[in-house]
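Issue 218. Parser rejects a valid record. Input:
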Amino acid sequence: MATPAGRGSTSNAPYFADGTQEFRFDDEPWEEWNPTEESIRPVRGKHRVAKQRGGLARSSTVLGVGVIAAVGAGGIATAKDKPPVPISMPDLGEQAKKIPVVGSLISDDSDAGTQEQPGVAQATAATLPVAATSSAGQSTADAGEALRARILEQAQSQEDEADAAAQAAAEQLAAEQAAKAAAEKQEAAEKAEAEAKRKAEEEAKRKAEAERLAKLARSYSLPTSSYTITSTFGQAGSMWSSGQHTGLDFAAPSGTPIKAVHTGTVKEAGWSGSYGYRTVIELSDGTEIAYNHQSSIGVSVGQKVTTGDVIGRVGSTGNSTGPHLHLEVETAGGSLIDPLAWLQSKGLNP
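Output the parser choked on:
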């Protein structure tokens, strides 16, 4: 290719796929040119027609292939002693399909049988990476969006499972607390019922005992009246020969009547040393009741007496410090017991 002197050169210029070498003027800047139907008019014949643009004549095939090669190479066109100039290529999407191929724009419309120009095939092939890149980018975006959707769905599923587990745990805890409260209430009710039953039983026993004692009281009597208890059973003191008191003392004025505590038979009646005048009545169960320090005796041995019968008078005979009745209770086995407790067991309260 001839080069005008001093205007341009082909040294170090790139070769294209069809064997041509790019020509440029060294003093002219690089320009981006996108062929369209408006900028390139088809001409008749098989020869390529150079288009003048800014004082630069280029073969249509060389120019079209150069543009496509520059885009396919990454959008950067280089030249000797010039910095690289980026070539921008908009993403036309569906509109890219409407852009005419360079070969179709410069072909001879009158010669339908003309063979396809080499640059046309290369241009068609060179445009494929752009669409492929766009499709790959869209595919990557779709894959990323799908991954994001799956992650969000999994996170939501995990959150739902956690909420369901928390709700189930709360329901289980509430059920356990309700069951515990019901059990405690049932236990409290059972305790209250048992306590009420126990109290009812105790009240029934108390009433039965009261009735029994009342009945016994009607058959038993206190030995005297208008008295004061001065000494009790087991009380220690030097005034008693055994070292302790063996009965229950009812202090009363001299001559106060002494009555039979219960129905029985007079076993002993008369003087008895330190006891003074003494009367012993044996009951039907073998228990013996002794009345001591009497001023006088009103019954005799073998006589049958009933509850409340007068058997003597209060006195101060024998070893005595003043008028009183010294009452003793002896079991059938011969043991002295507390007269106060015995009288109480018969429903009497001295």
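Fixed in the parser; the record now loads. The radius of gyration is 70 Å.
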